[in-house]
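User: I'm putting together notes for a lab meeting next week and I want to include a structural view of one of the chains we've been expressing. I don't have a solved structure, so I'd like a prediction I can at least talk through. The sequence is below, exactly as it appears in our construct file.
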Amino acid sequence: MIYCGVDWAESHHDVALVNDAGDLLAKRRILDNAEGYQVLMDLLAEYGDSPSNPIPVSIETSRGLLVALLNQGGRQVYAINPMAAARYRDRHGVSRKKSDPGDALVLANILRTDRHMHRPIPADSPQVRAVAVLARAQQDAQWNRQQMSNQVRSLLREYYPAALDAFATWTNPLCRPEAREILRVAPTPAKGARLTRAQLCAALRRAGRQRGIEAEAERIKAVLRGTYAHQPPEVEVAMGHQLLGLLRQLDAACTAADDLAEEAESAFREHPDSRVLLSFPGIGAQLGARILAELGDDRSRFANARSLKAYAGSAPITRASGKKHHVGRRMVKNDRLNHAGYLWSFAALTASEGANAHYRARRERGDWHAAGLRHLFNRMIGQLYHCLQTGEVFEEHRAFPSSLRDAA
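Assistant: Thanks for the context. Below is the predicted structure for the 408-residue chain, given as structure tokens.
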């Protein structure tokens, strides 16, 4: 067997090849371009690489053009955690020396000695990889939108509390187009107090509101004309200009989040696994896209349901040494999948009688709210693993048979 290690960088990559005895067969530095990738493929072919017997490769990342090129043709590419690679480096020398060619050699030796301890990058289809790109981008855009909304709220608290009180009855108010349109029309408290009902109605209609416009405009006008503390006029004007700049950024963030949500949902519904995911209570198109993005469609990725639960962070972890024995929640996990699991289990409480009964049983046993949801997620993701492996859809009476009898 020949093993290859690649220490990647932004402009170049170092490559090392070793055999079963640990002898260094070749080392090369390639550029991060098409010519460099061809040099790497020629080097692998020189040492026996073929479609029927590809040389396995280890690298400290799972993304990028180089990884996509290596992952073609059934080749096994192992993404080694940089922290694990640093620990392996100490096995080869105690002087704490470090170099890029040396790291490539360490990565190659990781496969030579402990290949069975690492799992290759899953062979997901291009369709599910496209869903992953869109779902993660939409989640990042949603986080960015909330961050911009928090900045606008913090600024309004400093000089324009009337606006916050006017929008307090709305859910996530500053991300709504009605609030942003009114703030554009009246970015300062002085302008807000001079707004008429007709101007407020026109702003609400421009934002897309269709019902209850007159009553809502009257309510907002009364709040904006209330008694509040004020900054000096010059400071209010300056803060108004700052608000308009933040609103432009918030508009872009809201538009990006909404557009990416539509694209992610559309790509998710075209995938065959969407039928199984959407059959589970609490999973919609957007949440299903996030879960599918992290699970993939490579059925051999997880050896069993227990492995998937550990990957999702829902399974507890045991730390035992001597007389000490502690069972707690898992800290090393896929954070995106764990976050989606929290939303999934919370939504399932109202969508499934069995899930609700299971959660209430855990609370009666002493679990806190988050622990109860995590336990429910642990059970339901195991059911999801079974359904994806067999192609079956979720059935309430089979998923929670005892819980349904107790609820009845």
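A couple of points you could mention at the meeting. The beta strands are 2-8, 12-19, 24-31, 57-59, 77-79, 317-321, 324-328. The first helix runs from residue 34 to 46.

User: Perfect, that's what I needed.
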